Amino acid sequence: MGSVILGTGSCLPKRVRTNDDLARIVDTSDEWIRTRTGIQTRRIGEAGDETYRLAAKAAEKALSMAGVAAEELDLIVVGTITSHMLMPSTACFVQKEIGATKAFAFDLNAACSGFLYGLDLADQYVRADASRKILVIGAETLSTRTNWEDRNTCVLFGDGAGAVVLGSGSQGRGLVGSNLRSDGRLWSLLHMHAPVSNNADLEQADNPGVHIIMEGREVFKYAVKAMETAISDLLAREGVTLDEIDLFIPHQANIRILNKLVERVGIPLEKVFINVWKYGNTSAASIPIALDEANREGRLQPGTKLLVCSFGGGFTWGATLINW
Ligand code: ACO
Fold first, then answer.
1. Membrane spanning segments where (predicted)?
2. Spatial distance between the Cα atoms of 187 and 202, rounded to a whole number of angstroms
3. Same domain? 10 vs 148
4. Ligand 1 in contact with 3 (CB < 6 A)?
5. Which residue from 50, 59, 129, 313 could staple onto 111, CB 3.0 to 4.6 Å apart?
6. Are residues 294 and 212 in the same domain?
């Protein structure tokens, strides 16, 4: 039996950075950012908003909604590309923060698809042993890895975290299936270098430092096509028609990607959850934050057929179908 999402939670830094704020840092404008990306504001972390702290606060809210104690957790998976340290994992920091003494914990790097990859992995653990309780988190402080001098990228990203608690489902409810993909040949179109190597022989050529580098137009093209195919393949495999989908939560990258995807998939806009205008692209955190907001707004009820999809660096992408 597939796993059910027992609770959701999210945590966003309080500090809001507007498009006008960015126009004071780089040569851009509110009008350019709104029309090209749909983003109006994003949240930028301050002291106390480290990736693991945002993650732990989101986790506590999800646990509280689920009625599950931290000590009951068997596993913590954190999807992130902005880990607090290289070692230990952000998941281990979260474990310490919330007191999940029984769990084992690790991070997963699949960029913006990190949450969906983690959800699928956790689902397999629950299918193997229905007594398991698992915390899946997407958490990022992309502001720490944004090149604040590059107007092509710095307007797109934001910080935040979202979490879900998974447990075994009752008949007819739960995660139906996932269609996850990646293509490492396309890595260079969206990537972030490692810190400078202490072994000169293994240094990456022309390492510009640790920040996001992106070929925006290429990413746009691949993202729309890949998510569209992942969705149609998944629906065909599961024998579900588009009409049956009640809510669609795509990765919140930017409004033009979302509009193009929605048009190509052919799903009515009123069935699409969009919050990119207020948070920007929060990478692995975007889907669990949107899930939590949709849930707390009452848009996810038992029986709701939910479709989720993502695309990110790697390239990594995928789609997941859930009977809420
Ligand atoms: N303000 C003003 N001008 C800008 C800005 C800015 N912030 N950024 C770029 N420009 C300029 C460029 O320099 C360029 O000027 P030029 O013609 O004088 O060289 C011009 O605007 C057009 O640049 P393009 O890159 O061609 O602009 P485009 O219309 O493609 O929009 C964008 C750029 C928004 C990045 C778009 O390519 C896109 O949405 N790509 C997808 C990227 C994305 O969402 N990545 C997130 C990670 S992956 C994911 O989550 C799916």
1. none
2. 19
3. yes
4. no
5. 313
6. yes
> The tokens of 269 are what?
């806009």
The atom number, within ligand 1, closest to the CA of 256 reads 39
Q: Is 3 in contact with 126 (CB distance < 8 Å)?
A: yes
Averaged pLDDT for residues 211-219: 96
Q: Which residues pair with 320 in a beta bridge?
A: 178, 308
Query: Would you give the end-to-end CA distance of the chain in angstroms?
Result: 14
Q: Are residues 180 and 152 both part of a single domain? A: no
pLDDT of residue 37: 97
Based on the domain organization, do 182 and 144 belong to the same domain? no
Q: Is the pLDDT of residue 289 over 90?
A: yes
- Whether residue 306 sits in one domain with residue 264: yes
- The string of DSSP codes covering 171-207 is TT-EEEEEEEEE-GGGGGGEEEPPSPPSSGGGPPTT-
Characterize the bridge pairing of strands 305-312 and 247-250: parallel
Please report the pLDDT score of residue 312 as a whole number.
98
ω into 220 cis (within 30 of 0): no
Helix, strand, or coil (residue 50): coil
Nearest CA to ligand 1 atom 20: 152
Q: How far apart are CA 33 and CA 149, in angstroms?
A: 15
Number of domains making up the chain: 2
Q: Is 156 in the pocket of ligand 1 (CB under 6 A)?
A: yes
CA distance 289 to 137: 10
Strand stretches in 52-173, DSSP E? 75-79, 104-108, 134-141, 159-168
Residue with CA closest to ligand 1 atom 3: 28
